[in-house]
Design brief:
The complex is a heterodimer of chains A (77) and B (971). Chain A is mainly alpha-helical and 77 residues long. Helices cover 71% and strands 0% of the residues of chain A. Classes of the chains: A mainly alpha (77), B alpha/beta (971). Chains A and B meet through α1, α2 and α3 of A and α22 of B. Bound molecules: iron/sulfur cluster (3 copies) and FE2/S2 (inorganic) cluster (FES). The site of one iron/sulfur cluster has 14 residues of chain B, from α4. Chain A: It comes from Marinobacter albus.
């Protein structure tokens, strides 16, 4: 996996988070962000950011980490 | 006999009128009807109609020379004189309004004598070279001379006359031969009333009077913007298209749509056989009502330019010469490459890009090819880099990804807000309409770092300029909304009945916070709080406030937030859902709206229907007969990243030049070079094609059938006037590729593609070619509820029911100035060139703009010892390029500006890949840079030169033979 690609993904999630901090508490914001990622990110991008969050995740902001965690959990229909 | 003229009962495409006839004076807007008798025929017409127009509506043609139905009556030629019962003398019918019971005589012996005398005077100062005159066969003066029966000219030509006056040939597209001028002033009035430029005047009086451009300068040196309105208005050959002088009068014509900008002007393509002689703006076009700009009117020569790609070509490696092959071979080669790539790297390793310059049908087909034949959702379009935030922001707040109004709506606006757009250059025909409204006294508010030309509209009303720092739009829109909320300027009735209370309350609490006040935001935006308050009041209290915005809103890291902020502002003030108000994105390219509507984005099927929705997928799967991937695909920047990472290997690009138009050129070049197979379909060897393995010749808009959708959601027909240079229209090429990939497509005409679109897209169910031909154009939504389309949206409710306010926190861009990069670069475009310039650079339009320059404020220039015309190195965090300096006070100190119409300028070498948080729309409008004097082009530019030369050599057959031997060595 190219570092550059991952760097971009990390930057993107953090940017999405920074623009969505106003939805109540961190958990609520994380849900909004996770929904955004589900709706707009390609399968491979989601997988990469999930892998990163699980293996290292240090560069993700706190809310981003919460959001990616939700992304990796199976959604109840 | 009683004839009723009732526009509502007749063909809506033309308002019941024949767009090819001139009714003499403009229609009267009055609802009251009066009845008059003309030569014994009684007709009812709206009060205020001129006698001349009433007669024309009754089918009676009164001779005229100085009148035209797109200009206010002037009454100077007197040819239209009539007799009115009970009135003395012979009043001019063009300046005489009808009155109830009026009885008019248009023809009798006295009138005939009078008209003949007038014509005799005109002709005595007019050359008699009709047979060799370029207007022969299409000259109003000639026609009127014929109608009035002029047989002799008693005055002779010995007296003083203007027959030796010199021709002004300075404009590349039309000439001005004053010896033929009858000083009717139609040109002067067209420049004022239709175009709004005021470049022409009548100089002198009586016999001395003559038409002058600017301060009696050649046209090219005057303020003239070459829109052609005066040429069209001229009843003689004084102002005449050079193409007609060269080719002679056209013999047939076809109505079609301009392929340049999002205004979508209708034109008559006037032809001689298969040669296009001239483009004449079509009065029946509802977007442009017979007006045009220099691009659509004159810059069509690229279609027959020698650089056109005329045959399919293939090559194994991008440093190998191109091999000309048959269509079948090229398609088979491309299909095999795509199949091999998927076999080797997986289903998701390929993708494609649809074009905002191609037709709806072609765009629809490309995304269908990707979703059905490629089997993934890796489709995107260049709208990603311009208006994707519009889609996101408007859909979230008001439920539909499109502007709310017609262009005509601006005529009812009391305050016009223009944010991050430059209509006089990018949407010129709409700008003329705006200027008309500004002359009528509407207030203008411009929110833009740069002082745009709209602010200097001749005879315009009040104008406020809020010159904010690039990147601070959201801070500004929040401050405006704060004033609305805290000064009690809200439209509470609208909010209560039309908006979701929960979101509204959340938003209201947020926006009323002190941190959003103009005073608090002053430090961020750099605009005085008082000015912001004044602007907010002017918008909210206007009656009708209309917002128009462009790429200066979307191309930011907070583009989507800003679009939502604009929608908030409109909802809070109730400025939505009727004429004269609304939220209007001004789309750049001709079919940006259409390419978004047609499902080009990776997460949305046509009609903005999400791929994750099983019900939506089921309907498409049923018609397409395949399973559609339920996850979104890659967007353009994600494709580039994946290409560099090695997981994305092949791409089909139709009619887009991503190598030039996308930010951070060097990154894009690395990505494109990493592909195993790049298939480019275009009319020229564009920058992207230089990295391609398959080159498929594209067809221009003149060579195909289809539809474009303009910025007001208007679907316009594009009609074929000549055969495609390489034999195939673009949709046929996509179809061939799909068939070669094993997914059958079988359309015989684009109308069949539109029928499929109508079946699958809820907002298009009522659209068909038959209806388009009947109505002229249709604004979607067009369905059971709106069978003739929807000019104004959201009149009763929103597609999502109630409007949703969105909290729009200002988050500063990461692209910030510092000691190393102390200036902010912002980008834009100019009138004569179009986008990446591939077309306009291949026309005489380059006489107006032959290079991109860097505009720099005098104080920044002085600090760096820079003078007008110096070479400047512009460096950002990602690259450097060199541009020539132009000293300009249009921006505040600290801001520099350039355009990106020429590939060698490398403006995108310096733009970064910073982008909108929601959509990845690149932040073109903000790049921190340093500027310094240099003596030579940048390293990138030198490399570009070499690469460009090399790729052109690989294209020429001579090079193919000469270098065939070393080509193998290069592989
Ligand atoms: S071409 Fe347009 S701008 Fe130029 S003089 Fe004629 S009307 Fe005016
Ligand atoms: S140039 Fe043409 S339109 Fe203008 S005053 Fe002369 S004849 Fe009339
Ligand atoms: S470029 Fe735009 S404004 Fe100019 S003629 Fe074409 S559609 Fe109209
Ligand atoms: S047309 Fe009426 S005065 Fe010229």
């Amino acid at each position: 996996m190219s570092d550059q690609q991952l760097q971009h993904l990390i930057k993107m999630v953090n940017q999405i988070s920074a623009n969505n901090l106003h939805h109540g508490d961190a958990e609520q914001s994380a849900e909004v962000i996770a929904t955004h990622l589900r709706k707009f990110w390609a399968r491979s991008m989601k997988q990469k950011i999930i892998d990163y969050a699980e293996s290292d995740g240090l560069e993700l902001s706190t809310v981003s980490r919460l959001a990616v965690k939700r992304l990796s959990e199976p959604q109840e229909a | 006999m009683l004839d009723y003229y009732d526009p509502s009962k007749t063909d809506p495409g033309t308002g019941g009128l024949n767009p090819d006839l001139d009714y003499g004076t403009p229609p009267s807007p009055s609802d009251a009807q009066v009845s008059v008798s003309i030569d014994g025929t009684t007709i009812r017409v709206p009060e205020g109609t001129s006698v001349l127009r009433a007669a024309a509506l009754a089918g009676i043609n009164i001779p005229k020379l100085c009148a035209s139905d797109n200009l206010e009556a002037f009454g100077s030629c007197r040819l239209c004189a009539v007799e009115i019962e009970g009135q003395r003398g012979y009043p001019a019918s063009c300046t005489t309004p009808v009155a109830e019971g009026m009885a008019v005589t248009t023809q009798n012996a006295k009138l005939a004598r009078l008209r003949r005398n007038i014509m005799e005077l005109y002709i005595s100062d007019h050359p008699l070279d009709c047979l060799t005159c370029p207007a022969n066969g299409n000259c109003e003066l000639q026609d009127v001379a014929g109608t009035v029966g002029l047989r002799k000219v008693r005055y002779g030509f010995q007296g003083e006359n203007h027959l030796d006056a010199e021709t002004d040939d300075s404009n590349p597209y039309f000439s001005f031969d004053p010896s033929k001028c009858i000083v009717c002033s139609r040109c002067v009035r067209a420049c004022e009333e239709v175009q709004g430029t005021f470049a022409l005047t009548i100089e002198g009086r009586g016999f001395e009077s003559k038409v002058a451009a600017g301060q009696s300068e050649p046209f090219m040196d005057s303020e003239c913007v070459s829109c052609g309105a005066c040429v069209q208005a001229c009843p003689t050959s004084t102002l005449m298209e050079k193409s007609v002088i060269d080719a002679g009068q056209p013999e047939h014509s076809v109505v079609t749509t301009c392929a340049y900008c999002g205004v979508g002007c209708s034109f008559k393509a006037e032809m001689k056989g298969d040669q296009l002689v001239r483009m004449v703006p079509y009065k029946g076009g509802d977007a442009n009502h017979g007006h045009s700009c220099v691009k659509g009117r004159f810059a069509f020569g690229y279609a027959t330019h020698k650089d056109r790609i005329k045959e399919p070509m293939i090559r194994e490696a991008t440093n190998a010469p191109w091999e000309v092959v048959s269509w079948d071979e090229a398609i088979a080669f491309a299909a095999n490459k795509l199949k091999d790539t998927q076999a080797k790297y997986g289903r998701e390793s390929i993708g494609g890009i649809t074009s905002s310059r191609c037709t709806n049908e072609e765009t629809y087909l490309v995304q269908k090819l990707i979703r059905a034949a490629f089997g993934n959702n890796n489709t995107d379009t260049c709208a990603r880099v311009c208006h994707s935030p519009t889609g996101y922001g408007l859909k979230t707040t008001i439920g539909e990804s499109a502007g709310t109004q017609t262009f005509d709506s601006v005529i009812k606006a009391d305050t016009i807000v223009v944010i991050g757009a430059n209509p006089t250059d990018a949407h010129p025909v709409f700008a003329s309409q705006m200027r008309r409204r500004l002359r009528e006294g509407a207030t203008l508010i411009v929110i833009d770092p740069r002082r745009i030309d709209l602010l200097s509209t001749p005879h315009g009303g009040k104008g406020l300029h809020l010159p904010l720092r690039p990147g601070t739009n959201v801070a500004m829109v929040n401050a405006l909304a704060h004033v609305v909320v805290t000064e009690g300027l809200e439209d509470t009735a609208f909010i209560e009945s039309r908006c979701e209370p929960r979101q509204y309350n959340e938003w209201r609490e947020f926006i009323a916070g002190e941190r959003n006040s103009p005073e608090a935001m002053e430090a961020v935006t750099g605009v005085s709080a008082q000015l912001v308050r004044e602007a907010a009041r002017a918008y909210a209290e206007a009656g009708n406030g209309a917002i128009y915005y462009g790429l200066g809103v979307t191309e930011h890291s907070q583009g989507s937030t800003m679009v939502m902020g604009i929608a908030n502002l409109a909802m809070a003030t109730g400025n939505i859902g009727r004429e004269g108000v609304g939220v209007n994105p001004l789309r750049g390219q001709n079919n940006v709206q259409g390419s978004c509507d047609m499902g080009s984005f990776p997460h949305e099927l046509p009609g903005y229907q999400h791929v994750g929705d099983p019900a939506v997928r089921a309907r498409f799967e049923d018609v397409w007969g395949v399973t559609i991937d339920d996850e979104p695909g890659l967007r353009i920047p994600n494709m580039f990243d994946a290409a560099i990472a090695g997981s994305f290997k092949a791409m089909y690009v139709q009619g887009e030049d991503i190598a030039q138009s996308d930010p951070n050129t060097q990154h894009v070049e690395v990505a494109l070079s990493a592909l195993d197979c790049l298939i480019v379909q275009d009319i020229f060897l564009n920058e992207t094609a230089k990295f391609a393995h398959v080159l498929l010749p594209g067809a221009t808009f003149l060579e195909k059938n289809g539809t474009f959708t303009n910025a007001e959601r208007r679907i316009n027909r594009v009609r074929k006037v000549m055969a495609p240079v390489a034999g195939l229209e673009d949709w046929e090429v996509t179809m061939a590729l799909s068939n070669a990939l094993g997914y059958p497509m079988d359309y015989r005409h684009p109308s069949e593609i539109m029928d499929e679109i109508a079946r699958l897209t809820p907002t298009f169910t009522g659209v068909s070619y038959e209806k388009l031909d009947r109505l002229g154009s249709i604004q979607w939504p067009c369905n059971e509820a709106h069978p003739d389309g929807t000019p104004t949206m959201h009149t009763l409710d929103f597609p999502i029911g109630k409007g949703r306010f969105a909290v729009t926190e200002y988050v500063a861009s990461e692209e910030k100035t510092n000691r190393k990069f102390p200036l902010l670069l912002t980008t834009g475009r100019i009138l004569s060139q179009y986008n990446v310039g591939a077309q306009t650079r291949r026309t005489e339009n380059s006489q107006w703009h032959h290079e991109d320059v860097l505009e720099i404020h005098p104080s920044d220039a002085e600090l760096r010892g820079v003078h007008e015309g110096d070479w400047l190195g512009v460096s950002s965090r990602v690259g450097q390029t060199v541009l020539r300096a132009r000293i300009s006070e249009r921006m505040l100190p600290g801001v520099v500006y350039t355009t990106f119409h020429h590939p060698g300028s490398g403006a995108n070498v310096i733009t970064t890949d910073s982008s909108d948080w929601a959509t990845n729309c690149p932040e073109y409008k903000v790049t921190a840079v340093q500027v310094e004097k240099v003596t030579q082009p940048s390293a990138w530019q030198r490399h570009f030169e070499q690469f460009d030369q090399r790729q052109h050599q690989l294209l020429t057959p001579a090079a193919i033979h000469a270098e065939a031997s070393d080509a193998t060595a290069l592989k």
